[in-house]
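Retro notes, structure queue

What went well: the backlog is down to a handful. What didn't: a couple of records were mislabeled last round, so from now on we paste the full input next to the output in the thread. Example, using Putative metabolite transport protein GIT1 from Symbiodinium microadriaticum:
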Amino acid sequence: MVLSAVAAFLLAFLCIYPIQAMVRILSALATGIGLLTDKYMLGATNFVEHYAVEFHATDSQKDFVKAAMYAGAIMGMIVMGPASDYIGRRLGLILCSVITLLGALLSALAWSENALIAARILTGVGMGGEYPLASAHSAESSEKTSDGARNIALLYLFGSGFGQALCPLVTYIMEEAGVPHELLWRWIFGVGVMLSACGLVLRYLTTQNSQKFVESKKAERKHHDSTWTILSPYWRALLGTAGCWFLFDIVEYGLKQNDAAIFSENASASYAESILQVLWSRLCVIPSLIFAPWFLTKVSSKRVQLIGFVGCGVANLILAVAYEELRELSTLFFVFYILQLSFQSLPGVTTMAISAEIYPSMVRGAAAGISAACGKLGATVGSYLFSELKNLGEIRAIFWTVFVTSALAMLLTALGTPYYNGNTLDEADELARNGKPRQAVKMLYSGPIADQDRTKGAEYVSDDLSEETDEQSAGN
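Corresponding output:
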């Protein structure tokens, strides 16, 4: 009966939508499912430490299980991001799925705490590559450059929205179904295995390198420029994207790897009820993730990021100052926690979107990989630091740390992140393809460009050629 219903749905879908539209949808799903799996697998360690009691792990080992995936992710980002600039986004995404599948499988079959740590590192390598590859591929595949941030926001919604909600949902269902704890944590990872396998099949069948990427590789071969030659003028942009992602991930992963414990600390409830609170917190944030793609079509990525960090900082300041009072009012505590998570979702989108948009296509994987790796370094710091604070019972200190981190991120966004639109990105990318990376950076920081001013890029190239001619004449 279920199979008949599925078949009927697919038949109706085929009648309504052309095959070409279906291919686009499946291709988008193939790009996003890796990030969904990543968020699911990251969320798993929020619960596994409670169930894998047969390992008799110490607090330090439990903390290392949480941090292990980040260590692998940093390696994956640094390696797979630049590698995708050479081997292509399609092959890079497929390799990420293969590595993630192996890591998830070993996690489910782990025979000791140390084996689980090793498996999580391997999983992290595959998942780390997802960030620069999926975001860069999504931006490059957009029909209009101005749609890049929106499409990455949709990618983030699919991954961070549904992926983060899926893990507590699966855990709660199995907990309520009475699955033995020694099997429950393995099945949590088992679902990750299935997600990874689906992503691998979808990517192999549907993913292709974008036309923009193909054209950028032709331009790179023409000018014979190295990655460093193209990327070095972007030092200010790299400081902004890498630094903001570092600070943001301290907050995001530090909180989300420990909020099951934060909620159980906040109320005299069973662990199942704590899982349910985590699930509700993930579901309540989805509206803000749905809002983000629309918001990015109306407001620049830089301003969206600033709004997110300001809101997150203010909400955590309230949680820090009034923690003792709010913990007695669990509903109000939950409301403020959801408020800060909702604001947090805005820089969650923009740190990924800006890193995937502002760099030339020929080195976009490397630049996004560096930025994402710095993010995961922040995730490692946040996860370990917040876990230690949680173990000491210093929950208030966690919220103070988030407030300070958000304030620093606001400052770095204001100083390092360019203010641009789709025309600015097109002009800057054209300059980079013409072998003018320094002029491309100058264009990037020149502000949004109106449609009638689209000749700016050609003027920059012309001016630069005139300067070179003058220098050569003076030398002669």
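Agreed that this is the format going forward. Reviewer comment attached to the example: Residues 105 and 253 are 23 Å apart (CA to CA).
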